[in-house]
Design brief:
single chain; globular
Length: 209
């Protein structure tokens, strides 16, 4: 849990749920069994937060210390397993879920890093890691090139959302003004990148041997 704030707890659990759905759908499309679907959903939902907690020394990680952090991705994985035909037809909606999870996680990750004594820049980077960590783990386990390495604008929106959260927190603003604008910055940028097919630049021409 990020701290004792009910808002931040809800944000983190919501982020876990929507990320876990995206992981569950990848597992279904890879023809994994129900156990594989739940595992991949859990890895996607919890991977970024687990990595964050280990790196900042918040042990045991929240995913192991609070039963709600385990129940939510299991529920999301089972939901995806049962209703995957309907969810699979809503590809764009799933991408929206993933963007929402990215926005929620980058903010909660940055705030938890600040809570544990990190400076503004490391906290913003840790927020980004929280947002992208689960997706990287999901793609590696599924045998795919991680999204953040395929020229999609993914890590940059997460860093922007985390940076807002750090900036607003340092100004001493109300938690709502810290959290929600940061979520919306990341979410909006990621959705626009999907809709408009914005891509990060890649190297052109042959590589030297």
């Amino acid at each position: 849990m990020v701290d004792d704030s009910p808002l931040l707890l809800v944000l983190e659990l919501l982020g876990i749920f929507v990320f876990a759905i995206s992981g569950g759908l990848v597992a279904v499309r890879k023809h994994l069994d129900i156990f594989g679907v739940v595992v991949l959903a859990g890895t996607t939902g919890l991977g970024g937060g687990f990595l964050r907690d280990v790196l900042i020394g918040a042990t045991p990680p929240a995913a192991l210390a609070d039963w709600r952090y385990l129940l939510v991705p299991v529920a999301a994985g089972l939901t995806t397993f049962v209703f995957h035909p309907a969810l699979g037809r809503m590809e764009r909606l799933v991408n929206i879920f993933d963007a929402a999870g990215l926005g929620l996680f980058c903010v909660t990750g940055a705030l938890k890093a600040l809570e544990h004594g990190l400076g503004p820049v490391p906290a913003a980077l840790m927020g980004m890691v929280t947002g992208i960590g689960g997706g990287i783990a999901r793609d590696l386990l599924a045998g795919r090139v991680p999204v953040i390495f395929s020229s999609e604008l993914y890590a940059t929106p997460a860093l922007a959302g985390a940076s807002w959260a750090v900036f607003a927190h340092e100004q001493g603003w109300n938690l709502w003004l810290v959290a929600w604008p940061g979520v919306l910055v990341c979410f909006g940028w990621r959705v626009l990148a999907i809709v408009r097919n914005w891509r990060a630049p890649i190297a052109s021409g042959p590589a030297s041997v």
